[in-house]
UniProtKB/TrEMBL annotation:
Zn(2+) 1 binds at residues 73, 110, 172. Its cofactor is Zn(2+). The lineage of its organism: Eukaryota, Fungi, Fungi incertae sedis, Zoopagomycota, Kickxellomycotina. One of its GO terms (biological process) is amino acid metabolic process. It is an enzyme of class 3 (hydrolase). Its EC number is 3.5.1.14. Its main location: cytoplasm. GO terms for cellular component: cytoplasm. The active site is at 75, 144 (proton acceptor). Keywords: Cytoplasm, Hydrolase, Metal-binding, Zinc. One of its GO terms (molecular function) is aminoacylase activity. Residues 186-299 form the Peptidase M20 dimerisation domain. This is N-acyl-aliphatic-L-amino acid amidohydrolase.
């Protein structure tokens, strides 16, 4: 017998909230219908047209206390359908040889499973008749996969978000390949930077001085050197490399543009980098270094996008929220190991708004398939994760001080 919670999860998976044209309103309709069935209030906020945010509220008995936020994104990344063994938006439930059911769909791991767990946990708590002390809000936001500016980035600036009076946010994590659960309270800071060099031009047969290329090369060399250092340090960790990534600043030269013809010395050359600054270094010092590098080489610098703070949640274990969080983990058999998020998530907007946020996904023994073909989850782990969230939400929602 297929559990009802699995049926609902599969329904959510079938909504094509896939870039570049996500069906956000179909998704909002589904979430509103869920809110009505569960019997909780809901709100649709649309800070950017066509990009609705749906918020469900499990009302607490003391609304003056800071609330607990549960964040998830509704959008998913595109698929290479021909590489899939199951239709990516079919949400097929497949019985495997080991007796486990797998659910195949884009978004099964990243991160509709978490959104579904929030819905199922609210449903269970509401049905039990229990009222928690604090308001709990489950947030379903668009656009995380394309940077989140029009999703969580816009949402945190609204009055509706401020009115939620968030005190702690539970956010995106990833399933574990084993039985250790990795949680994320830090992320690297994103920096997309463009260097433009201008110089003398002329015939390709001449010894022209102060060319654009001459100016841009030292900038490229310096940044490649930082990349090499990170690669060398990281390689010392061998197998554990992936877990340590966040401690190192990554540098990638993503665009190199300029030149018109083989025999013309280019008047302008542009190099664009994707840099992720580790929270172990001060991002402002890093920016100063970049700016000096540009100045020394007579190159113009432009930030396409950059984070302005090292986004860290650093609550002591004695903090009442942390006690509640850790207790719930313990009760649910979760051995939590904190790690720096290698990528970026919407949690950074929430941390920037001054609210502590921890990313977690309690599912064990999964092949990590976010953004990959044949993305799927193990049904029994999904069912276990719902229990985790019920306990977690009840625990966090009952914290009386803080
Ligand atoms: Zn995600």
């Amino acid at each position: 017998m297929e559990p009802e919670s699995v049926k609902r999860f599969r329904e959510y998976l079938r909504i094509k909230t896939v870039h570049p044209k996500p069906e956000y309103w179909e998704c909002a309709d589904f979430l509103v219908a869920q809110a009505k069935e569960i019997g909780v209030e809901h709100q649709i906020i649309e800070p950017v047209k066509g990009k609705p945010i749906v918020v469900l509220k499990l009302a607490g008995s003391d609304p003056s206390l800071k609330s607990i936020l549960l964040n998830s994104h509704t959008d998913v990344v595109p698929v290479y359908e021909e590489k899939w063994n199951y239709p990516p938006f079919g949400a097929e439930r497949v019985l495997m040889d080991n007796g486990e059911y797998h659910i195949y769909a884009r978004g099964a791991q990243d991160m509709k499973v978490t959104g579904s767990c929030y819905l199922e946990a609210l449903r269970e708590i509401k049905a039990s008749g229990k009222q928690l002390l604090r308001n709990v809000y489950a947030m379903f936001v668009p656009d995380e996969e394309i940077g989140g500016e029009d999703g969580m980035g816009a949402f945190v600036k609204t009055q509706e978000f401020k009115d939620m009076n968030g005190g702690f946010d539970i956010d995106e994590g990833g399933p574990s390949p084993n039985t250790t659960t990795y949680s994320f309270s830090e992320e690297r800071t994103l920096c997309w930077v463009k260097f433009t060099a201008r110089g003398n031009t002329g015939h390709g047969s001449q010894f022209i001085e102060a060319t654009a290329i001459e100016k841009i090369l030292p900038v490229i060399y310096k940044l490649m050197e930082i990349r090499d250092e990170s690669v060398a340090e990281l390689s010392k960790f061998g197998e554990a490399k992936a877990l340590q990534q966040g401690h190192f600043t990554s540098v990638n030269l993503t665009k190199l543009e300029g030149g018109k013809q083989a025999n013309v010395v280019p008047a302008e050359y542009v190099a664009t980098f994707d840099i992720r600054i580790t929270p172990d270094v001060d991002c402002h010092e890093f920016y100063t270094m970049l700016e000096n590098l540009a100045k020394e080489n007579d190159v113009e610098l432009e930030y396409i996008k950059r984070g302005l703070v090292n986004v860290i949640t650093d609550l002591p274990d004695t903090d009442p929220f942390m006690i509640a969080f850790n207790d719930a983990c313990k009760r649910q058999g979760i051995n939590r190991v904190p790690m720096i998020m290698p990528g970026i998530t919407d949690a950074r907007y929430i941390r920037e708004a001054g609210i502590p946020a921890i990313g977690i996904n309690p599912m064990f023994n999964h092949k990590l398939l976010a953004h990959d073909h044949d993305e799927h989850i193990i049904e029994s782990e999904y069912l276990r994760a719902i229990k985790f969230y019920v306990d977690m939400i009840e625990s966090m929602g009952s914290v009386s001080s803080s």
